[in-house]
Amino acid sequence: MAGCVLNTARLVAGRRLRLPRARVGVRVRFADGTSAWMYRETVVAGRAAAEPCVLVVAFRLRFVRGWGHALFRAESLLNTPLFVGFPGFVSKLWLTHDERGAYRGIYQWDGPDRAERYARALWRVLALGSVPGSIAYRDAPGLRRDAVLANPRRLAEIAPTDDASWWRVTAVT
Q1: What is the domain-level CATH number for residue 57?
Q2: pTM value > 0.90
Q3: What is the count of structural domains for the chain?
Q4: Which residue range is the domain that position 162 belongs to?
Q5: Does residue 72 form part of some domain?
Q6: Does residue 173 fall inside a structural domain?
Q7: SS3 per residue for 43-67
Q8: What is the pLDDT of residues 104-130, one digit of tens each?
């Protein structure tokens, strides 16, 4: 984590972090019947994925109800240093909580091994404020996030019989 924070400081100093607004307000639907709105995107300018990997992370926060969700979304910007400095991070789409209270992030990583290391490190941090048993992640090596958003069937092609449908994007509107 210390290395991540140092890398984040370098990115900030180099003015390489971007918060594009083009996708804010877009709705993402998932195979489990839930949906969520994109409320933020974080991108490292000039970083591309040589070994693309989509990572989807989900969790439900403990004790957050009603207006607490709006507070969490505002506060979550402060969590940016916890992930943008990880080796291989390219971008993240932040999604609001769905109908069941689950938040999701859809990431683009360079390297499935890097995505996996990040997800395991994130798990420990999320466990502090999440409902026990609610944290989950799934990666899709070889796929680019923007290609999945443009054609969600790409995820179904790699896991057509997966019963953990919470992570599979079905539509973007």
Answers
A1: 3.30.70.100
A2: yes
A3: 1
A4: 2-168
A5: yes
A6: no
A7: EECCCCCCCEEEEEEEEEECCCCCC
A8: 999 999 999 999 999 998 898 899 999
